[in-house]
Every structure is written in C-alpha cells, then in structure tokens.
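About this split. The held-out portion is used to measure sequence recovery: a designer receives only the structure tokens and must propose an amino acid at every position. Recovery is the fraction of positions where the proposal matches the reference. Here is one held-out target exactly as it appears in the evaluation file.
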C-alpha cells in the first residue's frame, strides 16, 4: 500500500496539534480537506488513526507510527528550505579556489582562515596550479576562481582578470647572510653562493633566467629545486643559498621566518597578481563573498607592501 507523503504530513500536523482545525490553519488548507484525507486513510488501513471520543485527538499506535514518518518529511522539507535559503544568501555552499603555490601559501590560505571567522558555513576547497592548468579548470567549471600572475602571457579570451597586487621580484636569503655585510654586491658575489630554483613551470623560473642574463651570469650552482614555499624558506634559513621570490611573499612572512631581501636591482617582470574568472559566469553567492573578501584584503595589503618596498635602499 502506497501512502502519499502529503497525507502523512497532514496526519502529523493533526497528531501534534491535537486538532484538525488547527492543523488546517498551520498547513494553509481547508479543514474538510484534512478530514477527508484522514477518513480515506482509515478506510484503506481498516483501522482508526485516533482513539474515539478523545479531545484533544489522541492517535492510536498506527496513527502515531504514520505521524512519525510525516514529521520526518516535514523536517526534511524544512531543512531543504533552509539549505536553499543559505545557498542563496551565500552563508553555505562550497567554493573551489586554485592558484600558484607560493601566493596560495603566503596569502590566500590565511585569507580563507579570516573568511571562515565571518562565514563558517562555507566550505573552501583549495588547490594548486599554474596558468595553463588553472584556465582549463576554470573553463570546465572545476574552479570558481583562480589566483595567479599575468603579464606577457595573456589570459584566454574567455577569462576576466582582476588585478590585486602589482608584481615585483627580489633576491632573497637568510637574515644573517654574508652578503649583507658587503657594501656593494657584485655579479661575482651572486655566483659565489648556491641557489634555490623555483618550481618547474613557475613564472619565477623564467624570471630567474632573465635576472641572470641581465647581470651577465651564465652559470649558477643550483643546490635545491622544486620545493614548496615553506621548504624553500626552511632551506634558506639553514644555508647561504640565494633565490628569487616575489617581494610580497617575503613580506608576508617577515615576522615568522628569518628571510631578508638583498638590496640588488634586478629586472622586474611586466606582470601583476590577480584573480582569474570566466567571463559572464554566474558566480554562486558564496564564491562572490570569498572573491570580495580576497580583493578587499589585498587593497589594504598593497599599500603596506609598497611602504616596505620603498624602505629598502636598492643597490646598483
């Protein structure tokens, strides 16, 4: 015997309120309509749903059993309504964010943390990648947005790029590096020390080659490569190695890692960090909230980083 879900809901309302009239008011239907439903159910079951002569109405065992299922349907309906409201308001849902590793580790993961203080009901799935991979995943709707640098290599026509930070690279090393004690750093000095190479496929790797070419260095000793941002920092702190890093990434960890900037002028990439999204895509409210949170955070951060950059006395 199949019993319609709406009939179970109506029965549950009558059982909980002890009155057909009050149940009708709650559900927004007529009292005769509920009475007919209850009468039809009793005929089909061959048993009464309520004990005769009791006021308020008191369910029989079968009436209470069926009402239990009606309550479950009502609760599922309430939860579905609440879930829809949360999704539409942006207070729940999942946001998928990808980006270049160093910036994701230096800034975005921390910003996701501060975002969750305000929006604990939103799940964020973070992943890594460089521009070609990120664009493919955006176009296939595997990502809501991506954080990456753009410059000489432009985004695909279907992409929309929002700049959040101008690009600037620096030569980085540990705080007590011997080169800090030299008044003027020469090309020869850079060759005398080992180097850390950026991740394969990273724009920083091309930047490193451009820097070496500009200062007239054809060969360096690479002792470590392919590490995450934390592994690069850890390696630099224990050695006299040098590497190229975005100035903003060094700035982000200035208080937690003993990494400093060598005041050497190097060629700067025509590139800026930004957020990549597909044009005319319908962002979920949750994704738009995280996008706004990240862009707002970088607006304040950009000025502070610029002041730190200007405080460095750059050499020749």
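Reference sequence for scoring:
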């Amino acid at each position: 015997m199949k019993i319609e879900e709406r009939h179970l809901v109506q029965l549950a309302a009558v059982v909980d309120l002890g009155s057909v009239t009050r149940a009708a008011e709650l559900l927004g239907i007529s009292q005769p309509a509920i009475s007919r439903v209850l009468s039809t159910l009793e005929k089909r079951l061959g048993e009464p749903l309520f004990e005769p002569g009791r006021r308020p109405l008191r369910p029989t065992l079968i009436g209470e059993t069926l009402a239990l299922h009606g309550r479950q349907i009502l609760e599922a309906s309430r939860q579905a309504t609440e879930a829809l409201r949360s999704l539409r308001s942006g207070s729940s849902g999942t946001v998928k964010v990808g980006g270049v590793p160093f910036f994701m580790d230096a800034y975005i993961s921390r910003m996701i943390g501060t975002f969750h203080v305000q929006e604990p009901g939103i799940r964020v799935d973070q992943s890594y990648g460089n521009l070609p991979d990120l664009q493919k995943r955006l176009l296939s709707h595997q990502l809501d947005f991506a954080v990456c640098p753009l410059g000489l290599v432009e985004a695909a026509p279907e992409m929309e790029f929002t700049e959040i930070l101008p690009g600037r690279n620096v030569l980085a090393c540990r705080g007590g590096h011997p080169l800090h004690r030299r008044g003027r750093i020469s090309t020869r000095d850079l060759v005398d020390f080992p180097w850390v190479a950026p991740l394969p496929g990273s724009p920083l790797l091309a930047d490193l080659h451009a820097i070496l070419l500009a200062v007239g260095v054809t060969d360096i000793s690479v002792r470590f490569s392919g590490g995450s941002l934390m592994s690069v920092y850890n390696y630099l702190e224990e050695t006299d190695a040098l590497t190229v890093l975005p100035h903003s990434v060094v700035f982000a960890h200035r208080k937690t890692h003993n990494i400093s900037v060598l005041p050497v002028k190097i060629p700067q990439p025509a590139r800026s960090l930004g957020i990549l999204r597909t044009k005319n895509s319908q962002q979920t409210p949750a994704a738009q909230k995280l996008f706004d949170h990240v862009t707002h955070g970088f607006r304040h951060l950009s000025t502070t980083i610029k002041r730190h950059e200007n405080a460095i006395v750059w050499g020749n």
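Annotator remark: The CA atoms of residues 257 and 304 lie 18 Å apart.
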